[in-house]
Write a structure and sequence with these properties.
By secondary structure, the chain is mainly alpha-helical. Helix content is 69%, strand content 0%. It is elongated and about 85 Å long.
Length: 371
């Protein structure tokens, strides 16, 4: 990130153009002593003089003062991970205020604003107070609205629309979400065939590597999406034991077939935990404890590496470049400490009361605590 340093910039620009302090002072209408003070850092040019100075040096005002409102992808990743680590160790209010400060500073860096909104969504539970959470969700919606209204990137605007929908859903504004997404997500739209058409186009254009890579990416995303949708289907059919058990059976087969437990253990952990709750809801304690065991195994796999990141495998061997291009570079949305505490906190769910005193449950808690 660049810091404002107008003194050094005036010196550099003046010397590059072989201009004396006297000539600059005469053009701007100030004394040579004033220019000297600017360059020594003893004073700053009046704000009304900045456009005139920029015109004189044929640069923008931002270039003149040394301020770059845009961050690189690497800088965005660094800030995100630093803030995620701070959320795990420092008071929420303190880190949240730091987020707000950075959002204000880089209010025209739309990729950074997107990641800031995701950061806040992923750590919203740490805010504690429901009223404070609603306040933060409102702020996220406002930032997304700013992105949609001002960014010229269709991709960024689409992402902002999705993030805003996430925030609105948690605000209980389901009608607004439906109005925004229903037409976009209409399964009857011909645009849903775009993936297959693009793959065929890559192939016909003699770009087999791109065709293969894009096919793998879409397959991976569809598999991950199917597990996520299965969890939604379980929630929608919580009153039907037969539907839930069949959904769990089929999803487990999909997880095993595509080794999703190794590719995306965090998602699989969530699935196994939800399965455990449903088994216990139906009074099937052995099955519930078995699902909790799978949950603990997935969490252990997720936290096994010092640096948690998404990756492919021997089958999905063309994903690494794509994952490296993601805004977070395949890194997790939350710090490892926050992830562990979140999963440990999940064990306090009321439906687990029936098995809390069992040896199996105590062992699962021990494993999740990393003991």
């Amino acid at each position: 990130m660049h810091q404002i340093n107008i003194a050094e910039n005036i010196i550099r620009l003046r010397r590059e153009r072989k201009i004396t302090q006297e000539l600059l002072a005469d053009f701007i209408g100030v004394t040579k002593a004033a220019v000297s003070k600017w360059e020594n850092g003893q004073s700053m040019p009046d704000i009304l003089l900045l456009p005139q100075l920029a015109v004189f040096f044929n640069v923008t005002v931002d270039e003149l003062i040394g301020f770059d409102p845009q961050l690189s992808k690497e800088q965005i990743q660094k800030i995100y991970q630093e803030l995620a680590a701070d959320f795990a160790t420092r008071p929420f209010a303190e880190v949240y205020e730091r987020c707000r400060e950075l959002i204000r500073r880089y209010y025209s860096c739309f990729p950074f604003l997107l990641q800031s909104c995701l950061l806040l969504l992923n750590h919203l539970a740490l805010a504690g107070d429901p009223a404070r959470q609603q306040e933060i969700l409102g702020a996220i919606s406002d930032v997304c609205e700013h992105i949609i209204n001002n960014s010229t990137s269709v991709e960024i605007c689409n992402d902002a629309t999705t993030i805003r929908a996430m925030a609105e859903l948690q605000q209980g504004r389901a009608a607004e979400v439906i109005e925004t997404l229903e037409k976009v997500m209409d399964p009857k739209r011909i645009a849903n065939q775009n993936e297959m058409i693009l793959i065929q186009a890559y192939h016909l254009a003699g770009q087999p590597a791109k065709a293969r890579s894009y096919t793998q990416i879409t397959m991976y995303l569809h598999v991950i999406g199917l597990i996520g949708n299965a969890m939604q289907y379980l929630a929608l059919n919580g009153d039907s034991q037969a539907v839930c058990e069949e959904t769990i059976r089929r999803s487990r087969e999909l997880i095993a077939t595509y080794a999703v437990d190794k590719l995306h253990p965090g998602l699989v952990a969530q699935f196994h935990f939800q399965s455990a709750l449903l088994f216990l809801q139906f009074g099937k304690e052995p099955e519930g404890l078995a699902a909790l065991g799978l949950f603990a195994k997935s969490v252990e796999r997720l936290l096994a590496d010092k640096e948690i990141h998404l990756h492919g495998d021997a089958y999905f061997d063309a994903l690494e470049e794509w994952m490296g291009e993601l805004e977070l570079g395949g890194a997790p949305p939350r710090n490892a400490k926050t992830i562990r505490e979140s999963f440990l906190g999940a064990l306090e769910h009321p439906l687990l009361a029936a098995v809390k005193e069992t040896a199996e449950f105590r062992e699962i808690r021990r494993r999740l605590a990393g003991e």
